[in-house]
Amino acid sequence: MGNDELLNYISMFREKAEQGKLVIFVGAGVSCNVDGMPSWNALIQNMAKAIDYSRCDTCRHRLESCENTCLLKDDFSTDELLKVPQHVFNKNQELYYRILNESIPAVTADAPLSSAIFDINPAHIITTNYDQLLESSKNIFCEQYQVIVYDKDLLNADKGKYIIKMHGDLSDASSIVLKEQDYLDYSQKHVLIELFIKSLLTDHIVLFLGYSLNDYNIKLILSWLNYMRSQNGAFDVDRRVGYLILDQEIVDDTQLSYFSSNNIEVININSMPLIQEIPADLSNEIGKRLYSFLRVIANPALEENLSTIENAVKFMSRFSFVSYEQILKLLYVKRYEVTDRKLRLFSENDYARLIAFMESGDEGATDLRQLFLNAGIVSIQCIHEHKVMRFRIGELSDNALLKSEIFNLYILNKYDEIKALLNSEHIDLEANEMLFYESIVDGFSEILKFHEEIDCSGFPIDQKVAYLHNSAVLEAIQTYFGGFDSAKVKQFVQNIAASKEREVFSGYLDIYSGNTKKRLSMYEALEKLKKDVGDRNTIHFGGTSCARLYEIKRLAITQYFFYYNNHILYQGFRDLKDFFKPYIEAIICANSDAAQKTTLWGDMEFANEKYAVEYIDLDIMAKFISTKDLSALVRSYNVKQLNTGVQEVTFLAECFKNLCHSIVTAKTYGLLQSSFSALSNIVLLLNLVVLDENSKEIIAASVEALLSDKIIAPIFFSIGWPDFRQSLRELSKLCSLLAFPHNFEFVHQIVGGEKFFEYAVNVHFNSLRHLIEQFISKDEATTEKIQAIIDTTEDFHKKVILLRLFYQQITGDTVQQKYKYILSDNFAQLPIEAIYDFIFSGWLIPDQNSIKEFLNGVIELSRKEVTSVHSYPDPVESRLECVYLLYINDMISDISALKELSEGRPHLQFLLDSESFDYSQVDFSNYMWENFARHEKYMSCFIAHKDAIIPIIQNRIKSEEASETEKRILYGFLLSGNEIWKI
User: Fold this and answer.
1) CB distance 617 to 587 below 8 Å
2) Does 131 share its domain with 226?
3) CA distance between the termini of the chain
């Protein structure tokens, strides 16, 4: 029997053991591997000699000299094996029991084969042996089994697993089943045990160890099987109930056929390779092979000597995606490391056998290369005795996913073309693939209509698992994300017979457990990366402080490939966003200025470099994080520019153009407007790369097409756009780098939107103004158009918003004066932001009456606030801050009217009476105190009262709470030269 066939049987026994469906029968052939323990035949020989029974007496070929050399004289028939002990018993019972005791010593050894059986952890162990070699084993699992000798033991059992000694125990001679009458009486004397064993035959697999083909016990089992088969067709003809382990050079085909027809298969382990660690107690080659066979069942890691690379590749090629960890596990590669698509092997033997196979030119060699490429591995290397060996598998562009037409449409954001492809009559996509891309382009509305009509019965197993998972996703969506039920998928995967096949689908089970282990590893590596990037005193191998990023990357990219190769629906769920979160942060961290700072070590300098961002990284950052969170990361790490090549910049510009086109022409908004969020993220990323002129032209044309669309423009300029504040800031920043033709109609359409004014008061107004200014000129014609819009707007507050938006583009003194008068006359009604805009630009110079009205309005508002609900930001405090700024800039000369509001307001107290003010209340970490300090007349006050201020700042410095402003004021103004040296 070949190794591959043996391996299949081994895998099957392992699966049955894991399922609690394996029963092991142990015969004398197992015990005889322990010194002093006889085989069944040897026991019968001892009894035959005791009564001078010999086959030679009836032999027709007998010669006077042949008896001593005859090989057949002890070859007892099945009938004789029972009758000889019966003759002894009938002749002399005392002799019968003496031979039993002398032939079978009371050995209680920790037998290697017994331990190997327990390691398999079968549901039950049934033995026809009389010795105690099983129950005397020191294997930790032994104590979980209860010894059953009599029927009553079954009734009193308190453990779930049994060692059933169906032929008795030597410690009680009366329990022994050996002679013919014992077998004839068995069914009457052991009713419960026999029934229990028969019940196991109905739904368990039986593994027979230590039995011969002629063993009476095997034939007894066959008789039971034949009886059960006759009862209502209990057994299918092709079903295997038992497997008999033999170790012979040649097995009679007739015997094989006989057992096969009786639902028992014979497995010959004569060619079984020996494992390395075999106990010295086992000197018999047959025993060694049986031990090796049992140990490999218990431990899959020992399969290496049985498996071939070719068969492993054939198995893996059945699946859409196999991760590099699974590939290496199935190839029995244990020691390795993966860094940025490079596989490093630590065993020269592993390297030699893999490379030899891939260089063989066989079909399997090409398949293995493709498996590695699909898993993201492009090269293999091994360092042995200072010799570096390298093998190039191929290019990442040869990855099957990256060569897929529809995936390339997806990653380039050509959603309009995907939509056309999905609606085509000649579409050539499998069902999961269609569902997957439909969900990305248009959400789930269309999917829900035809999903239940799909018949998955003919799907390959990996597509079935994906279909079951996606079905659970759709069920959750129909209950408005009420909860994802993974039970059916888990059950299906657990029911898969082969463990290596189940292992391929372990990624699903990881998802259901929240990918806890992987995410923990990623966050641990992220913390180390952040420390490395900020540490300039550590030398990093390879000259980079970003090495930890690759630990995160290999997990993230594997997950990316797993989802996209298996077409796992993810839209609307946080799983992937949460998974990619540490990777995205790692990319941003590794592109901070700190990441490329030189490391100093003594007098030597070591260069570091930023991580080079790739296009899959860009896709992940565009689609698996909110614009708000991405913007926060960029600010947190102070990233000014990503390390990208020309190709990645071109890719990013193309992605922007294609997504704009898809949104405008095909209305591919995605689930929960995911396309809008992706678009904003791409804009943010474009602000972090160096754009060439061609890319700028492409982007400018796309922006113009997007914002001039009558459907999209009102959506963008509304608070309904995802992360609308950050999106506006980023788009305004990007547009400042681009050139646009002036088109006031385009602007008119924007400000004429139904929700524009609500939007305008909730965004960073300067960003909005700068964006609008990109599309209009500053001339008389434009002024007339601006005037027409403002004058036809009746609501005063909307007029103010339009004035703030356009005042810098208005020309002509007459028109300017007209609007300045309006602003002055309504000074007290102006929003705070408008006051700042117009006063500091010179458009608003309020008179004393307007100022008085404004201050009285603050007082009145404060009085109302005492009895009303407070809001944030506090309108009183906002208006007071406005007063402070106008006062210190000499635009208001008298604020004494606000004295009644001074309690609990140190800023106001200071401005009203700086002489008697308590300077211990000064806090330069507060931006308003910082504004005061910028004016010489107020700084002189602080210097004059520095004795009250200095201790406070010094204490904050000691506790590491002081801001940079506080330090600058302390060392630059409050302390003299001599005092600084005393610190």
Assistant:
1) yes
2) yes
3) 86
Dist CA 260 CA 330 (whole Å): 31
The dihedral formed by the CA atoms of 747, 753, 758 and 764, expressed in degrees to the nearest 10? -20
Residues 6+ apart with CB under 8 A from 505: 462, 465, 493, 496
Across the chain, how many H-helices and E-strands are there? Answer: 50, 13
Least confident segment among 112-116, 122-126, 604-608, 828-832: 604-608
Q: pLDDT value at position 479?
A: 82
Retrieve residue 9's tokens: 């049987």
pLDDT recorded at residue 374: 97
Domain final position from 338, 373, 398: 398
Predicted confidence at residue 73, as pLDDT, reads: 66
Same structural domain, 265 and 388: no
Measured CA distances, 788 to 133, 779, 784, 805, 806 (Å)? 104, 14, 6, 14, 12
Q: Which of 555, 654, 549, 620 is nearest to 591 (CA)?
A: 549
Measured between alpha carbons, how far is 218 from 259 in angstroms, rounded to an integer?
A: 10
The Cα 706–Cα 572 span in angstroms is: 25
Q: Could you tell me whether strands 22-26 and 205-209 are parallel, antiparallel, or unpaired per DSSP bridges?
A: parallel
pLDDT recorded at residue 203: 86
Is the distance from CB of 273 to CB of 3 less than 8 angstroms? Answer: yes
> What is the domain extent for residue 330?
308-398
Q: How far is CA 112 from CA 108, 138, 314, 508, 935, in A?
A: 12, 10, 35, 38, 90
**Residues 272, 317 within the same domain:** no
Same structural domain, 19 and 119? yes
**Do the Cβ atoms of 546 and 590 come closer than 8 Å?**
yes
**Candidate from 483-487, 739-743, 793-797, 938-942 with smallest mean pLDDT:** 483-487
Distances (CA, A) of 621 to 212, 397, 478, 514, 892: 66, 20, 28, 21, 49
Q: Roughly what angle, to the nearest 10 degrees, separates helices 363-374 and 348-358?
A: 120
- Type of residue numbered 351: Y
Mutual orientation of helices 285-298 and 112-120 as an angle, nearest 10°?
20
Measuring CA to CA, which residue among 969, 959, 878, 885 is closest to residue 919? 969
How far, in Å, CA of 446 to CA of 426, rounded?
A: 18
The DSSP result for 162-184, as a single string, is EEEETT-BTTBGGG---SHHHHH
Q: List, as one string, the DSSP characters of 11-45.
A: HHHHHHHHTT-EEEEE-HHHHTTSTTPPPHHHHHH
Residues 149, 172: contact at Cβ < 8 Å? yes
Q: Which of these, 655, 592, 658, lies nearest to 619 by C-alpha position? A: 655
Q: How far is CA 550 from the centre of its chain?
A: 15
Contact 201/164 with Cβ under 8 angstroms? no
- Tell me if 678 is assigned to some domain: no
Last residue of a domain, one of 398, 424, 453: 398
The number of domains in the chain is 4
Are 198 and 345 in the same domain? no
Q: Tell me the pLDDT band of 221, cut-offs 50, 70 and 90.
A: confident
For 806-938, strand residue ranges (E) read none
Residues β-bridged to residue 126: 25, 164
If DSSP codes are grouped into helix, strand and coil, which group holds residue 600?
strand
Q: H helices within 443-515, ranges in order?
A: 447-450, 461-478, 487-494, 499-504, 506-512
Distances (CA, A) of 728 to 634, 676, 771: 16, 12, 8
